[in-house]
Amino acid sequence: MKLVIAIVHDEDAYEVIDNLNDKGFQVTKLATTGGFLKAGNTTLMIGVEKEKVEDVLEIIRNVCKTRKTVISAPSPMMGTTGVYVPSPMEITIGGATVFVLDVDRFEKV
Amino acid sequence: MKLVIAIVHDEDAYEVIDNLNDKGFQVTKLATTGGFLKAGNTTLMIGVEKEKVEDVLEIIRNVCKTRKTVISAPSPMMGTTGVYVPSPMEITIGGATVFVLDVDRFEKV
Amino acid sequence: MKLVIAIVHDEDAYEVIDNLNDKGFQVTKLATTGGFLKAGNTTLMIGVEKEKVEDVLEIIRNVCKTRKTVISAPSPMMGTTGVYVPSPMEITIGGATVFVLDVDRFEKV
Ligand code: NI
Ligand code: NI
Ligand code: NI
């Protein structure tokens, strides 16, 4: 038995929990407030048989992988009409930190 | 030294912490929001000497064991007066998931 | 790789996270509600290379060490003017509980 502790970004939490549940993995979601400048993280705990750790990691990787997205960012330039023109900006989102711990003993009461 | 991580139902949390404290075990209670469809769980962390793990587990089992209870559930049938008649319904409550982890090093500052 | 789980008092949390970040350690802060009579604790998780565990512990010790402080406590005696006179009282604050766990596997997604 292993305990997977995954720290994921809030925006990925719903999908990763949903995908894990769909594959039969029980997930406990801890309310994480994040370190300073790191708000927006969610910590998940998943107890899993040794043979299935890779399946859990694969789901986390698929959902949480670092990827680029384009957002409309405020532009320092104004259009000729004086209307504020947002310029698209590419940012990196996602990412997760995963610890797998050995479980000495596991019990369902 | 071992670290016991117990995920218990909210309705059992007060009593299990109280019983653990009575026996001299320190408990840290994490705010758990639960996975989806699993709201209402509380995660407890208890650092404990190896020889006392069984005592901790025994307390958790006693308080949190799955048991049946009877609640008044809405009935699909109405009484002749048209008044809503709740019918008693047996449901299962309780249960806990417990992980015992090895502690490499323990320190009280 | 090790996972350091530190339970510190709320009043020390900001400084210990700040000091850990300054030294390049990533900290995940869990919202801890504390056991009963133990409200005011914060749980921190820090993933760290084996060789740097002592550095992390040193920072936690420096910030969180038990120390005495003087507060103005309500006094049972009133001054002659009838004005409430607080008398200084020495109390002990700080302290932390630290568990270091072995990490079987670590992954940054
Ligand atoms: Ni991130
Ligand atoms: Ni349950
Ligand atoms: Ni304390």
UniProtKB/TrEMBL annotation, chains A, B, C:
Coiled coil segments of this chain: none
Matches recorded under PANTHER family: CYCLIC DI-AMP RECEPTOR A (PTHR38456)
Matching Gene3D superfamilies: 3.30.70.120
Phylogenetic classification of the source organism: Bacteria, Bacillati, Bacillota, Clostridia, Eubacteriales
Name of the protein in question: Cyclic di-AMP receptor A
